[in-house]
Write a structure and sequence with these properties.
The structure holds three protein chains of three kinds.
Chain A lengths: L5 H13 L2 H38 L15 H10 L11 H20 L15 H22 L3 H32 L4 H7 L5 H4 L1 H18 L11 H4 L9 H27 L15 H23 L5 H28 L7
Helix pairs in contact in A: 1-2, 2-11, 2-12, 3-11, 4-5, 4-11, 5-6, 6-9, 6-13, 9-11, 9-13, 11-12
Chain B lengths: L14 E5 L11 E7 L2 E8 L7 H5 L4 H8 L7 H16 L5 H30 L4 H19 L9 E2 L2 E2 L7 H24 L2 H7 L7 H6 L4 H5 L7 H4 L20 H23 L20 E8 L4 E8 L7 E5 L1 H7 L1 H5 L4 H11 L3 H5 L1
Helix pairs in contact in B: 2-3, 3-4, 4-5, 4-11, 4-14, 5-6, 6-11, 11-14
Chain C lengths: L2 H11 L18 H10 L9 E3 L7 E3 L5 H10 L7 E9 L4 E8 L6 E8 L6 E3 L8 H12 L2 E3 L32
Parallel strand pairs in C: 2-5, 6-7
Antiparallel strand pairs in C: 1-2, 3-4, 4-5
The chains are: A mainly alpha, B alpha+beta, C alpha/beta.
Chain lengths: 354, 373, 186
């Protein structure tokens, strides 16, 4: 692991002195998992509220502002309501798969959160194949969606799940390729290395034109990965009821709901890490204060989250065949050409470095 | 999922989906039985009658003033125009001389109703194709019209302002000024609507070339209103059989020839401009005079058959009264525009996808109580 | 085309082969009763199988016997001088004792209108020919007439009830329909 903050170093030493090494590492891992579960829950709560306020702002309304200061406790109230709801499963649903499906999406989202470098010392798992790991993990989330649609024994849910599955698998290609474009500059898949390289200028500035194109493709593909508008055919409210999570209620529905927001946060975080320098401040103005890194990271991530919310409340929805045409006939060829251009730039040393 | 049934190794089956009666996209209680093969629609069969209230049978028992109240509930988005239709039928049958003031006010209120109905249509259209914010913008402008109506007519949805013989009461003193303020405000809003939805490439891809209706089919299926006009069929009743003050104003009929969903959309947007122009021509010169001509307390139409056609926001509404000289009609038939517009849904939706069906239905602008009566 | 021109054109399509060329002159008589009697005695035999009237209506009304209905309708649509391609209203009426259907037609080319009426005495099993293949809008309208009046249409692709449920008994818009639960009479 990377260097821990002094608190974590303290806990680490205390654990290892108090118990045998094997137990201590297990306890450490459990503690870290609990911390990340907490991050997951709080981020989810905050993001749902942000979505509702932003949507209200676009729609000339106010949004929730009564429960708690400026509505901060609104999502808590909603979560409590969802917990107390009856879990109405259908009789003919495949019980095991029906119960298993939400867990796939949650676990995929949590595992991906683990590798994100929130700050210099705040990273749970700095594996040397960081980006590869991230892309692989987000593919596991698709299984959850397909299982949910299939096991609900509901035609609408099945159509929604199929559409979503096809969409997610297609757009993973674009995400992978656009991230690959930036890896050409850094030369390493490890996330902390990527941040190190960005100390001489953010990657989006270093790579100029191909990087900007890669970023735009990444944002489009990322919005499609998380099934958000304008790519939310899978849960198109005005067409098929509620898509693949029609038959879920109560806490299981809350899992899917939260997982969608965390995925959105993940896409924004990955973009922040790879394109915008993670926890680095622009021009290094606050390098001397290390704990400000988290604030910078969150700020950049939330700007991108706001951008995704802006898309949702402005654009109409694409039809499923138009969605797939966009990916296979437009984004993929552009991406491939972009990689070649970037490779040329790196070879000829034309990247901008400060 | 293979969509070809010719390929023997991968046979697919058609299956059967029920859309409605409670569904966000069917604009009311309409049940559509879809037979689909993958994403392609093979057959659409509407199932009606969920809000059938036997208005025509009730009209055989009610007096003519009471019938006007029933017409509000048919196509509740053009309630003023529905009232006007029945009042005009009765007045033409009795050969009453209606003062010019009444005619001009009826036309202004009819055009305001049309704008209000199209505002709601635009909001719902955006919502159906996925742009969820348009709903709020459409309703914001509709609220302004509803406030004007509330001040003058006393109600926001089922106005009942027209009676046989004229208007129920004279217009409120603030009416003229508020309508002029609204017209000025709304002229800045339609370009906003255009920037948000009309020019959006995603919206254009969703609606261009979808649900094409040829001119012959439009006439054969009895399509009227914007649905017919988008296919090149000139069917505006305000032009061909003008009523009230419509022969005194000049306006263009919004006609397009492509016949697809995008054309129907553009026709309605242009109708908004035309209605604003009609209101502007009339609002400054409302003639003085009475607002109501007295009729008998018990109205009895002479023996015979009377037919009046008006142009509601959905198309051509016809009121057909067969009278035998009594105080209720012997038979009253409403020719509703939505009924004919719905009958062509199967014809234009087959072969398209479910997403196209939703976009097409949004532009047919169906109001189910109008169909079910 | 004017109503007189329409009347003579359409009437000429279905000439009444038994008609005498009886003139329609009626003697002027002093009392009203005698006048009416004379009119009855000397009721002219129509030169056409169709009956035309403009009384009590703003359009030209054509009454056609039910066996000639389909023929008349297809000629009205296909003939170049009439070209009635827009059926804008199809209503069922219970004339007591007959049941009938009223068709309002308009031509989008010539912009003239006409009303076609057809009646049948049989209340048990009234049947007309469907005009669905002439004007596609008739499909739904005829279903509505079947639903409310019980009039059946030959060659209709899908003749079943439209608004009421399949199990409903009776035809509500007939004048002799009795329903003590749902109908509130004054």
């Amino acid at each position: 692991m990377n260097n821990a903050l002094s608190i974590t170093k303290f806990i680490h030493d205390w654990l290892f002195s108090a118990m045998p090494a094997a137990t201590a590492s297990i306890v450490e891992m459990v503690l870290i998992a609990i911390v990340y579960l907490g991050v997951f829950a709080i981020a989810g709560l905050f993001l749902v509220l942000l979505e509702r306020r932003v949507a209200a702002w676009f729609q000339l309304r106010i949004g929730p502002n009564r429960v708690g200061f400026q509505g901060l406790l609104q999502t808590m109230a909603d979560a409590l309501k969802l917990v107390s709801k009856e879990l109405t499963g259908t009789e003919k649903a495949d019980k095991f798969l029906y119960n298993l499906a939400p867990y796939f999406v949650i676990i995929a989202a949590l595992m991906a959160l683990a590798v994100i470098p929130f700050s210099q010392d705040f990273q749970a798992f700095d594996i040397n194949i960081g980006i590869f790991f991230l892309i692989a993990i987000s593919s596991i989330g698709v299984i959850g969606i397909l299982l949910a649609g299939w096991s609900s024994n509901n035609k609408f849910a099945l159509i929604g799940a199929m559409r979503s599955g096809v969409q997610t698998i297609s757009y993973e290609l674009s995400i992978g390729l656009s991230l690959l474009t930036m890896i050409l500059i850094t030369g390493s898949l490890q996330l902390s290395e990527i941040v190190e390289v960005q100390k001489s200028g953010w990657l989006i500035v270093q790579g100029h034109i191909p990087a900007i194109i890669a970023f735009m493709i990444y944002m489009i593909a990322g919005t499609a990965e998380t099934n958000r508008a304008p790519f939310d055919m899978a849960e198109a409210e005005s067409e098929l009821g509620a898509g693949f999570h029609t038959e879920y209620s109560g806490m299981k529905f809350a899992y899917f709901f939260l997982a969608e927001f965390i995925n959105m946060f993940l896409i924004a975080s990955i973009a922040t890490t790879v394109f915008f320098g993670a926890w680095l401040s622009p021009f290094g103005i606050t390098e001397s204060i290390p704990w400000l890194g988290v604030i910078w990271f969150l700020l950049k991530a939330f700007v991108l989250v706001f951008l995704m919310m802006w898309f949702r409340w402005t654009f109409p929805r694409l039809r499923i065949d138009q969605l797939l045409t966009l990916e296979w006939k437009y984004l993929l060829p552009i991406n491939l050409v972009n990689i070649v251009v970037m490779a040329f730039l790196v070879w000829q040393n034309l990247i901008i470095q400060f | 999922m293979a969509t070809s049934t010719i390929n023997n190794s991968f046979k697919t089956e058609e299956y059967f989906i029920n859309m409605g009666p409670q569904h966000p996209a069917t604009h009311g209680v309409l049940r559509l039985l879809l037979t689909i093969d993958g994403e392609i629609i093979k057959k659409v069969e509407p199932d009606l009658g969920y809000i059938h209230r036997s208005i025509e049978k009730m009209c055989e028992r009610d007096s003519y003033q009471q019938i006007v109240h029933l017409t509000d509930r048919m196509d509740y988005l053009s309630s003023n125009i529905n009232n006007e239709a029945v009042c005009l039928t009765v007045e033409n049958a009795l050969q009453l001389e209606i003062p010019d003031r009444v005619k001009v006010i009826r036309t202004i209120i009819g055009e305001l109703t049309r704008i209000s109905s199209h505002c709601l249509w635009w909001g719902v259209m955006g919502m159906d194709v996925g742009a969820l914010t348009t709903y709020f913008y459409g309703f914001r402008d509709r609220e302004m019209i509803n406030d004007i109506f509330e001040e003058t007519c006393g109600a926001r949805l089922t106005m009942n302002y027209n009676v046989p013989g004229g208007l129920m009461y004279d217009i409120h003193p603030n009416f003229v000024k508020r309508v002029k303020d609204f017209v000025t405000h709304f002229k800045t809003k339609i370009p906003e609507y255009d920037r948000l939805l009309t020019g959006n490439i995603i919206f254009q891809k969703r609606t261009q070339g979808v649900g094409i209706l040829t001119k012959e089919d439009a006439i054969s299926f009895g399509a009227s209103g914007p649905v017919g006009r988008a296919s090149g069929y000139s069917c505006d009743v305000r032009k061909h059989h003008p009523y009230s003050a419509l022969d005194k104003v000049t306006f263009n009929e919004a006609i397009r020839t492509e016949g697809d969903t995008y054309a129907r959309y553009l026709v309605r947007i242009q109708e908004l401009w035309e209605s604003l122009s009609i209101i502007e021509q009339l609002i400054d010169n409302i003639p003085e005079g009475e607002s109501r001509v007295t009729t008998n307390a018990v109205i009895k139409l002479p023996k015979g058959e009377f037919y009046q056609r008006v142009e509601t926001a959905r198309g051509e509404l016809g009121v057909y009264i067969i009278s035998r000289g009594t105080k209720s009609p012997y038979r009253l038939k409403f020719r509703s525009p939505g009924f004919s517009n719905l009958s062509l849904l199967n014809h234009i939706a087959v072969g398209g996808k479910i997403g196209d069906l939703v976009a097409t239905m949004a532009t047919l602008d169906l109001v189910i109580p109008d169909i079910d009566r | 085309m004017t109503n007189e021109a329409l009347q003579s054109l359409i009437g000429s399509w279905f000439p009444n082969l038994e008609a005498d060329t009886v003139s329609e002159n009626i003697d002027v008589s002093k009392t009203e009763e005698a006048l009416e009697e004379k009119i009855e005695l000397q009721k002219p035999v129509n030169s056409s199988l169709l009956e035309f009237s403009e009384e009590g209506s703003q359009y030209l009304n054509v009454s056609v016997p039910s066996n000639l209905l389909y023929n008349l309708m297809s000629q009205l649509k296909s003939s170049d001088q009439t070209r009635f391609d827009y059926l804008f209203c199809l209503s069922g009426v219970d004339w007591q004792p007959e049941l009938g259907v009223v068709y309002h037609l308009e031509s989008t080319l010539h912009r003239h209108s006409i009303v076609v009426k057809v009646q049948i005495d049989d209340r048990e099993n009234p049947t007309f020919d469907s005009v669905y293949d002439i004007w596609a809008t008739a499909e739904f309208h005829e279903r509505e007439v079947f639903d409310f009046f019980g009039i059946k249409f030959n060659n209709h692709p899908n003749l079943k009830r439209l608004f009421l449920t399949e199990e409903w008994e009776g035809f509500p818009l007939r004048k002799d329909y009795v329903d003590t639960i749902n109908m509130v009479l004054k």
